[in-house]
Amino acid sequence: MAFECGVEPLDRYFRTQAGQDARKRVASCFVLTDGGASPLGFYTLAATSIALAELPHTLARRLPRYPSMPATLLGRLAVDRRYRGRRLGELLLFDAFSRALRSEVATYAFVVDAKDDAAASFYTAYRFIPLTEGGRRLFLPMAEIAKLFA
Ligand SMILES: CC(C)(COP(=O)(O)OP(=O)(O)OC[C@H]1O[C@@H](n2cnc3c(N)ncnc32)[C@H](O)[C@@H]1OP(=O)(O)O)[C@@H](O)C(=O)NCCC(=O)NCCS
């Protein structure tokens, strides 16, 4: 059975674009399976940056005066709707955290783009902070993520 998270743009991305993005090296796609034919969930990772001026002053004042900070972007995250509520979203999120932490390429923060308020509240439950007030781009410093694995 085909993957279906219930959000058509995400389903379409997974069906038609994820493979191309991976081949062109613009995003890596990681797929969760139970060994069966149908994926249970997926997420993508790519590099991005956050302008120093966008970060809260309390964080920015402790950083070097570079115009922007490197970050890891969780571009997409979705769980098949038949498998919702079984903590697979959390499993995928922590798998993505772990990859970002283990990478030899330094990033200051982990960034997500929430597609709606429900997605934003999923991320804020894991202490993500909106970059702009009420905005849908959220971030979490890698130092905070490292503490979750300590
Ligand atoms: C968001 C999504 C990935 C969550 O996956 P899931 O496997 O159902 O979630 P989990 O079982 O891991 O839930 C973990 C926690 O997040 C909460 N949560 C799950 N989905 C949520 C949502 N849409 N909004 C707010 N909180 C949510 C759960 O209640 C749980 O909280 P708890 O610890 O208090 O019980 C999934 O609902 C999905 O694929 N949605 C469609 C695509 C989407 O919105 N992606 C988000 C990126 S744009």
What does this structure look like?
The termini are far apart. The protein is an alpha+beta fold and 150 residues long. The protein contains 5 helices and 6 strands, in the order αββαβαβαββα. β5 and β6 (137-141) form a beta hairpin. It has a single domain, classed as 3-Layer(aba) Sandwich (Aminopeptidase), CATH 3.40.630.30. A 6-stranded mixed beta sheet has the order 1-2-3-4-6-5, with helices on both faces. Residues 5-7, 10, 77-79, 84-90, 114-115, 118-119, 121-122, 125 line the site of coenzyme A.
Q: How many individual β-strands?
A: 6
Q: Strand percentage, roughly?
A: 25-35%
CATH superfamily: Gcn5-related N-acetyltransferase (GNAT)
Shape: globular
Distance between the termini: 38 Å
The Rg value, from CA coordinates, equals 16 Å
Give the SSE map.
Layout: H1 8-23, E1 28-32, E2 41-51, H2 57-60, E3 68-79, H3 88-102, E4 109-113, H4 117-124, E5 129-130, E6 137-141, H5 142-148
Parallel strand pairs: 3-4
Antiparallel strand pairs: 1-2, 2-3, 4-6, 5-6
This protein binds coenzyme A (COA).
Give a nutshell description of this structure.
With 150 residues, the chain is α+β, with helices and mostly antiparallel strands. It has helices at residues 8-23, 57-60, 88-102, 117-124, 142-148, and strands at 28-32, 41-51, 68-79, 109-113, 129-130, 137-141.
